[in-house]
Amino acid sequence: MKIPLSNALLDEKDIYEVLKVLKSKRLALGPYMKKFEEMVKNYVDTKYAVAVSSGTAALHLILKSLDFGENDILLTSSFTFISSANVALYEKGNVHFVDIEPDTLNVSLNALEEEIIKTKKKNSRLFFMGVDIFGHPLDWDKILDICQKYSVEIIEDSCEALGSEYKGKKCGTFGQAGAFAFYPNKQITTGEGGIIVTNNEKIYQITKAMRNQGRTSSKWLSHEVIGYNYRIDEMSSALGYSQMKKIDKIIEMRNKAAKNYEKLLTFLEIPVIKSYVTKMSWFVYVVKLPKGTDINKVIDYMAKNEIETRNYFAPIHLQPVYKKLGWKEGMLPITEEISKRTLAIPFYSEITFEEQEKVAFYLKKALELFS
């Protein structure tokens, strides 16, 4: 029996809602998009939500709505999915990567402030893309203090953190706007899709127009601003609407799975949850292998035993496109050292304890062989 890295939780209710859309033949810009937006904004407690085609589209539109452009600088983590940085390049801006904390794997507060101070001398506008990595919130009170001190705009990349809470407040609500993503390995899925949440009416209005080819009125061929085809379709919206009905159940199931791993994986470093996290919504489960472990041999060994694992994440600043911009090894030492030994293991809502036992058994044997 193969154990996959991730697996979406889908049931008959999800199928029923999607079939309703297909039978209606209203496949885009229909009622389900609005119902999905309402559910998400009410869940995270914001005034507005704009559903789009992906988490990347959500981040891009937020940056665009803030007039981010050439000569502006986006500060973010290199230990995240590449779209957190790429969206700045879409607008011909600059990316400055910040090193991470070795325990939470979120951006280091000290490194962030140091980079801001150093970068302020360039007289560029500064933006911070705060990533709640793997669902673990940043220390937002301290982040807000730093960014307010230096007049840095905040965008929250909560694409992996739907449902997580920092001191009782939902992730996605700490910056000018936040973004969530719904790829099949996320807490809930729409297949492909994302959403913007914000309390800023201007951001809401402009991102809503830009997702739909720049339309700001009901006239279909009237385009007042430059826009994109970043719409989410009705089938995806219907699935998201249905999935949101069980978000609390999904988070509970994933928390149970995480606690099982905590009991089973006593032989290696498991994820750290800080005291300021009042609710953890797990995206993936990433462990740290001992220093010196051959991670590729571990991955191959697990695969031979029908267990899918993956190195998570490779640093963005060492990707070829960013090396061409001048980034190189040694610039972010903690990110580079940690990324060599982070391993995502099978984790999803319906994973069984027996499957987790198998993962733990073979992972222990792999470490005995390759550490």
UniProtKB/TrEMBL annotation:
One of its GO terms (biological process) is polysaccharide biosynthetic process. The active site is at residue 186. The keyword Protein transport does not apply. Signal peptide: none annotated. This is DegT/DnrJ/EryC1/StrS aminotransferase. It comes from the Bacteria. Gene3D superfamilies: Aspartate Aminotransferase, domain 1, Type I PLP-dependent aspartate aminotransferase-like (Major domain). The modification N6-(pyridoxal phosphate)lysine is found at residue 186. It comes from Thermosipho melanesiensis (strain DSM 12029 / CIP 104789 / BI429). InterPro entries: DegT/StrS_aminotransferase, PyrdxlP-dep_Trfase, PyrdxlP-dep_Trfase_major, PyrdxlP-dep_Trfase_small. GO terms for molecular function: pyridoxal phosphate binding; transaminase activity. Pfam families: DegT_DnrJ_EryC1. Keywords: Aminotransferase, Pyridoxal phosphate, Transferase. Belongs to the DegT/DnrJ/EryC1 family.
